[in-house]
From TrEMBL:
GO CC entries: peroxisomal membrane
Major subcellular location class: membrane
GO biological process: peroxisome fission
InterPro entries: PEX11, PEX11C_met
Pfam entry (one): PEX11
Underlying gene: pex11g
Descriptive protein name: Peroxisomal membrane protein 11C isoform X2
PANTHER family referenced in this protein's UniProt entry, alphabetically: PEROXISOMAL BIOGENESIS FACTOR 11 (PTHR20990), PEROXISOMAL MEMBRANE PROTEIN 11C (PTHR20990:SF1)
Location in or out of the cell: Peroxisome membrane
Keywords of this entry: Membrane, Peroxisome
């Protein structure tokens, strides 16, 4: 009975994830890169592998699906950027400005990708290559800013942990222990964010024009590995939720 209950809870949790747009996108993303990883490995071992080719085609279809669904993300991104504004609630100026610049890059990313998508679909008469490069470049800039922001956030959280320790008294040890546990979870979350962004950044560089660092040099399985790593971290972070901190 215990096993059945666990299975039921797992199925319900998975259904809840699929019912939200962000959750469904993360699942599709994981399947997309996971298929590319396995398909790339199989195709690398044997160019005649039908399963490998099928998985790579399946991955490409899921990628096109996500691109199409992102046609409707502009307003939600604008709403987020507007609500964040100039980051008046942020304690640190560096975190605030990196967040603002990241929001700008993310906001510009969507229309560039839409134009590239429309050009490939022959809805408009323009070359899609430059728009794909521009959207990928904006994605890369956003990822770099995210990495720098997380590094800065870790520094701030470590400083808070030290302050909590110094201000501790015999009566408040339990409370301080709880606060430090929250801060450790936040630091761990920022470390995961860095790893996720680094994995995505490696793919973003791969998709840049040839001659730029390692652009075009990744085999399909490596692209799938980086993307799967990032996607699994995203699912993990979504299931863990946000954590608070001591002030």
């Amino acid at each position: 009975m215990r096993i059945i209950q666990i299975m039921q809870d797992s199925v319900e949790s998975f259904i809840n994830v699929l019912e939200s747009y962000r959750g469904r996108d993360k699942v599709i993303r994981t399947l997309c890169y996971g298929s590319q990883l396995v398909g790339g490995v199989l195709a690398g071992k044997s160019s005649q592998s039908l399963l490998g080719k099928s998985l790579l085609l399946f991955s490409a279809q899921l990628s096109d699906c996500r691109t199409t669904l992102r046609l409707f993300d502009d307003l939600s991104m604008l709403a987020y950027s507007t609500s964040y504004g100039l980051g008046a609630s942020e304690e640190d100026a560096l975190v605030r400005w990196m967040s603002i610049l990241s929001n700008v890059a993310d906001q510009l990313y969507y229309p560039c990708e839409h134009i590239a998508w429309a050009a490939d679909a022959e809805l408009i008469k323009t070359k899609s290559d430059r728009w794909w490069v521009l959207s990928t470049g904006l994605w890369g800039i956003s990822l770099i800013l995210s990495i720098l922001r997380s590094i800065r956030s870790i520094q701030i959280l470590k400083r808070k942990a030290q302050m909590c320790q110094r201000s501790a008294s015999a009566e408040s040890r339990e409370e301080v222990f709880s606060q430090k546990a929250v801060l450790r979870r936040q630091i761990r979350g920022e470390v995961f964010s860095i790893l996720s962004s680094l994995a995505d950044l490696s793919n973003a560089i791969h998709w840049m024009p040839p001659g730029f660092l390692w652009a075009g040099r990744f085999p399909p399985w490596l692209v799938g590995l980086m993307g799967t790593t990032s996607s699994l971290i995203g699912l993990l972070q979504m299931s863990s939720g946000d954590q608070g901190a001591c002030s």
